[in-house]
Amino acid sequence: MIIKLEPINDNNRDAVLALSVREDQPFVATNDYSLREAAEANAKAPGTARPFAICAGEKIVGFCMLALDPEDKNPIDRYCLWRFMIDKTEQGKGYGQAALQEIIRYFKENGVDTVYLSTAPANARGLHVYHKAGFRETGVIEDDEAVLRLWLEKKKKKRTEQISLARRQREGASANQGEKRLRCEHCDRKRR
After folding, report:
1. Alpha carbon 72 to chain centroid distance?
2. 137 and 171: one domain?
3. How far is CA 12 from CA 9, 86, 165, in A?
């Protein structure tokens, strides 16, 4: 499944505004509201809010808005998945997971190592999708929403490298101790 993120423009704006979620998903802001928020945020700090149409081939199936603001004092707001929705007619087809992978790739390409998002604790379906993509609860509740975090590959690699180095050092120490024991036993045999 090929998913791409297409910046919002005059050619796709109406299609994005026509997207909606199911009635049992009241915690998802409308795309109209989100685009107004993006305009306000970008008026204050250009490039902070990055709204995208989520496209499966040529078909627009969803909308997302990312925030990239390394100057924000709140780490949760620096790099976050601000809005994410898949149209009600397109849910359950795998677009959500595929779109999240594309969003994660976008963050990685922009040098981000930690991504946050927040959602209503009652958003069971959304939480399932986020957990499947690797997001985990932080224990923080902000504006009545649970905050989730995803450590990106860059961070994981660094941690994995640290673990591997520590393991190699331990194994090296064990090997050296083994050599010493062998030498000692060998020396002892020669002395006898």
Report:
1. 18
2. no
3. 6, 15, 49
The tens digit of pLDDT for each residue in 56-100 reads 999 999 999 999 988 888 878 889 999 999 999 999 999 999 999
Q: Classify burial at 19, counting beta carbons within 10 Å of its beta carbon; exposed 0-12, middle 13-18, buried 19 or more.
A: buried
Residues 13 and 65 in one domain: yes
The number of distinct structural domains making up the chain is 2
Do the Cβ atoms of 148 and 100 come closer than 8 Å?
no
Read off the pLDDT of residues 130-179 as tens digits, 9 standing for 90 and up.
999 999 999 999 999 999 999 996 544 455 555 555 565 666 554 444 44
Half-sphere exposure for 47 (CA within 13 Å, toward CB): 5
Q: Give Cα separations from 22 to 88, 91, 139 (angstroms).
A: 5, 9, 28
Question: Residue 186 corresponds to which amino acid?
Answer: H
